[in-house]
Amino acid sequence: MLSVLLQLPDADIVFYPSLLDEQESDRLLTQLTETIDWRQDWITIYGRSMPQPRLTAWYSNPGISYTYSGITMQPSPWTRTLLDLKAKAEAVSGVVFNSVLLNLYRDGNDSMGWHSDDEPELGQNPIIGSLSLGGTRRFMLRHRAEKGLKHQIELTSGSFLLMQGTTQHYWQHQIPKTKRPVPPRINLTFRVIDLSVRLTSELDTD
Ligand SMILES: O=C(O)CCC(=O)C(=O)O
Ligand SMILES: [Mn+2]
């Protein structure tokens, strides 16, 4: 499968432009839009509560909840379709994932702000496999220390982006809003949650 290694310092990011073909991607976009248990979470920014600018869902092996930005998501059990996609992501990356966070960007107003995926339960060097379906959106990267270091890549339908190694230590990423008309997009970020890490930190706080 064609892959492109991004030439960025302190990062290990590989882009696979076509994990899925166009027809398969279109079919999955429709199916997942209709069948996933989408939820609208609310976030607090500067003391004001507002709807998160996208819909989300969390599917995983039993018992793996996920907490980020103060939101804890209880898992839904894997579906046939998600297991098929997980197998495809595993075949190209050589990683066994145990969970997936899904994001639905309804239009150009939906977005995700600057962040790193560096919660403790993602382990020392988080491995994130990110599959995109539907409208093309811009994925921006910026180095946390070297302010001039930036990169951007268009995440097209059917593409897969693998982030690993020290990427989350040194880089942040975002999906900015856009004024261009864009069709809906679903992104699936497959993750490896290390339950033992969480158990330890929970015990520590008792
Ligand atoms: O939508 C995307 O491509 C990025 C999603 C993301 O960064 C995340 O779920 O942590
Ligand atoms: Mn992320």
Can you characterise this structure?
By secondary structure, the chain is α+β, with helices and mostly antiparallel strands. The chain has a single domain (4-205), classed as Jelly Rolls (Sandwich), CATH 2.60.120. Strands 1-2-13-10-15-8-5 form a seven-stranded antiparallel β-sheet. The radius of gyration is 16 Å and the shape is globular. Helices cover 21% and strands 36% of the residues. The model has no long low-confidence stretch (mean pLDDT 94). The structure holds 2-oxoglutaric acid (AKG) and manganese (II) ion. Manganese (II) ion binds next to loops.
Strand and helix layout:
Elements: E1 4-5, E2 12-16, H1 22-35, E3 42-45, E4 48-51, E5 55-60, E6 66-68, E7 71-73, H2 80-93, E8 99-105, E9 112-115, E10 128-134, E11 137-143, E12 150-155, E13 160-164, H3 167-170, E14 171-175, E15 185-191, H4 195-205
Antiparallel strand pairs: 1-2, 2-13, 3-4, 5-8, 6-7, 8-15, 9-14, 10-13, 10-15, 11-12, 11-14
This protein binds 2-oxoglutaric acid and manganese (II) ion.
2-oxoglutaric acid binds next to strand 8, strand 14 and strand 15.
Brief synopsis:
By secondary structure, this protein is an alpha+beta fold.
